[in-house]
């Protein structure tokens, strides 16, 4: 879906932080598709 139009690299968010995936996307529609796809995969909130 959005894999062809983005670049992703491993990066450190700050000194001493753990590695993260830095995604470089310029198209707003592609960003929206990615966020929606990721939100669907999130687990349901736990009851407190």
Task: Write a short abstract of this structure.
With 48 residues, the protein is α+β, with helices and mostly antiparallel strands. 29% of the residues lie in helices and 21% in strands.
How would you characterize this protein structure?
The chain has 48 residues and is an alpha+beta fold. The protein has one domain (3-38). 29% of the residues lie in helices and 21% in strands. It has 1 helix and 2 strands. Strands 1-2 form a two-stranded antiparallel sheet. The chain is flat.
Distance between the termini: 36 Å
Mean pLDDT: 86
Poorly predicted ranges? none
Oligomer classification: single chain
Question: What percent of residues adopt helix (DSSP H or I)?
Answer: 25-40%
- Beta-strand percentage? 15-25%
Strand and helix map with partners:
Layout: E1 7-11, E2 20-24, H1 28-41
Antiparallel strand pairs: 1-2
Notable traits:
48 residues; alpha+beta; two-stranded antiparallel ribbon; 1 helix; 2 strands; 29% helix; 21% strand
């Amino acid at each position: 879906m959005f894999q062809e139009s983005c670049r992703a690299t491993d990066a450190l968010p700050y000194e001493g932080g753990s590695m993260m995936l830095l995604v470089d996307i310029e198209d707003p529609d592609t960003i929206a598709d990615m966020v929606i796809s990721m939100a669907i995969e999130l687990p349901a909130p736990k009851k407190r």
